[in-house]
C-alpha cells in the first residue's frame, strides 16, 4: 500500500512540476508561444467556439482565448510570488522578532497580528483593495497584507522552539549579538517550514488575486489576467462557455499543482512529519 | 497519523463544492411548477382578470418618494403608484391625464390646469389643486431634498389655487419643456396627507392615485403592489378603463444580471428587466419568451472630451479620434446588434433628434493621421505621436463596475486609437475618487449618459451653468462653453413654437457632432424579457414600464 501511494505521489509530483514549469515558461516568454497578439481584437471572429484557427475559441472582443491564458500566467505568477515575498517576508520578520524577544514586544506584536487575524484573509484583501483602488500593485499589497498573520504565527512558533535549545544558549553565552543569533543560527532552522508555507502561500495568493480581479479590483491593463477573464466570461457562460472555462481551468491546475507540491514538500521536510 | 490533513481537506472541499453545484441546478426546477401554479387563478381568456405578476427588478429602490429621488429604479416602480397631470405619447404629443385641460398664458410663463374632480388618493383623501400645489412647492423648495424633480420644474416660481379643481403654475421665464417633464413619474402627484403622516419616511410609505398601491416592502428582497380597485383615471396610453387586471405585482429585487435571467428561465419570475445583450439574443430565439425594448430618451452614452484641457481643446485632434473610433465594430462585438449605434448626443427617441446625422461620418484612419500630422504631432519611436517632447495621450476615467459593458467599450477604443499613435490611459476608480476627478476636471475623456425626456438635456451636458461646482450641478463633463451655443441652448428651452424649437436643437446637434465635442456610442434600450403568458406591459414616454394593462394567462 505504501509503495502504491508513493508511486501515485511520484506521478503527481511529475505532473505538478511539469504543469508549473509550463506556466512559468508561458510567463517568461509568452510571445514565443502564443499564436496571436493578446490585444488583437478581430471583429470578424467574435465568440468563436474552440477549434479551427482558435484552439480555445475567442471572446466577445474577438481575442484568442489561448493567447490570453498564456499571457495571463505572467500576472498570476507575479501576483502570487511577489505577494508571498512581500507579505511572507514581513510576516516572518514580525514573527521572528516577536518570538525571539518575547515579553512586551512579543505581546504587542502578536496582539496586532491577532487583530489582523480576526478578519478573514479574503475580506481583508477585499477591503484593502477597495480602499487603494484597482491596480496590479495595489492588488499585490492587498494580498500581501492578508497573508502576513499566518507567516508571523508560524515563524514565532518556530523561533520559540529553537531559541531555548542549547546551541542557541551556547551562542548567547559567548556574547554573539542578537541579530547574528537570529539570522545565522535560528533562521536556517526555520527555513524549511518557511519554504513549505511559501509554496502553499503562492497557490493561495494566486487564488486570492484572481478572486479580487474577478470582482473588478484587479488591474485594468490591456492584457487581462485570469480573474478578469473569468469575470468577463461569466455572463456569457450559457452562450460561450469557453471564455470563462479555460482561464478557470488554468487557475485550478496551477493552484492545485502548487498546493500538491507544497503538501509533498511538507511531508518530505516539514517539521510536523511523523 | 500518517494520513495528512490537507488531503482530507481537499476531499471535503470538493464534496461540498459538488453538492452545491448539484443543489444549485435542481433548485430552479423544483420552484418552477409551484410558482406557475399560483398564477393560474382565472380561466384562460383575453385579457385574464386577476392573478399576479412576478417581475425581477435590476436593483433595489432606496425610496419611492419620486419627488426627492434621482434614481431611475425608483421612478420605474413609482410609475405604477403615482399618476401625472399629463401623459406624453411616443410621438411627443401631450395628452390629458389627471388634468383634463390646460391653457398657456400669452407670455408663456403661466400654465392653468383644469383638474379631474373624481380622483382620490389611495388613503381616501381627494386629489385637488391644493394637493398638486403642495407637491410642486415641495419639489421646487430650494432648501428641500429634491434632486431630479427640482430640475424638471426649472424656473418654477409658484402655484396658485384658483379653485378646488383649477391650478395656475407660474414660471420666472418661459419654460417649454414643462409639459413633457410633467408627464414623468418624477412629477407624479403624491398625497399631501402622506407627507404629514410619514414625514421623512414617506419614501417607504408612498401614497398616490395610481393603478397600484404599496402592499408590502421587504428591503433588498421584494416589493408587493396590489390593485387599486377604485381606479378609473388611466393614462392616455392605456388600452382599457377601470381598475388594473392584475390583483398583485410582486417585484423581486435581483441586481445580479445572470441571476435575473436564470430566475426568469426557471419560472421564479414571469418577467425580468434589463437583460444583457447576450441573453437577449438567446431569449429571442426561445419560443417561450418575448422581449420588449424601449429606447430611452435623453443623452446617449457618449465619450466626452474635456474640451477645455490641452491638447484635446484642439478640435482637429478631437476630429482625428472621431474618425478613428469604429463605433459599428464596438456595438456589434459588445451588444450583438441589440443596442443601436448612436450618431447624436441625443437619443433617437428624443424630440428634435436629427436623423440626418446618421452615416454623416465614417472611419477614416488616413484622414485622422493627416489631421494629427498637420497639427504637428509626429510619430515617435514607440509608435506614439509626440509634440514638444510630450506624448499624445488620452486619460480616460471611469467608475468601477463595467456597467452596460462601458469598460469594454474603452478597451476597444484603446486598441483603435493606437492605430493613429494615440496612447490611452484608462483609470477605473471607486465612486468617491471618480466624482473628485470629475470636479477637478483632470481627465481628457469620460464616458456618460443622461436619461431624460426633453432635448433640453443638451443644456444639462453642455451649458456653462453645469460646470463642476457641486456634485449635482456638475454635468457638463465636456467643460464646454461657447457664448453663441449657450444662447441657442437658452433660446431653445424658452421657444414655444415647436418647429422653431426643433430646428434649433437640430442645429445644436450638428454643431456638437461636427466639432467632435463628444463621440456618441450607443442608445440604451430598456429591455424586459417576459414569459409569453404575460401580455400588456407598456412603456410610458421616458421608457418606464406600466403594468396597468398587464394580464397573465394560464
What would the principal axes of the Cα set say about the shape of chain B?
globular
- Report the average pLDDT across residues of chain A: 90
Alpha plus pi helix count of chain A: 10
CATH top level label of chain A? Mainly Alpha
For the secondary structure, the number of strands of chain B is 25
Alpha-carbon Rg of chain A, integer: 22 Å
CATH architecture of the largest domain in chain B: 3-Layer(aba) Sandwich
Q: Write the CATH fold name of the largest domain in chain B.
A: D-Maltodextrin-Binding Protein, domain 2
Structure commentary:
The complex is a heterodimer of chains A (274) and B (554). Chain A is an all-alpha fold. Chain A has helices at 2-28, 30-33, 65-101, 103-118, 121-132, 136-163, 166-173, 178-214, 226-234, 242-269. Chain A contains ten helices and no strands. In chain A, helix 3 (65-101) runs antiparallel to helix 4, helix 3 (65-101) packs parallel to helix 10 (242-269) and helix 4 (103-118) crosses helix 6. Chain A is elongated. The relative contact order of chain A is 0.14. The model of chain A has no long low-confidence stretch (mean pLDDT 90). Chain B has two domains: 12-294 and 526-552, D-Maltodextrin-Binding Protein, domain 2 (3-Layer(aba) Sandwich); 298-523, Dipeptide-binding Protein, Domain 3 (Dipeptide-binding Protein, domain 3), CATH 3.10.105. Chain B is built from 16 helices and 25 strands. In chain B, strand 14 (378-379) and strand 15 form a beta hairpin.
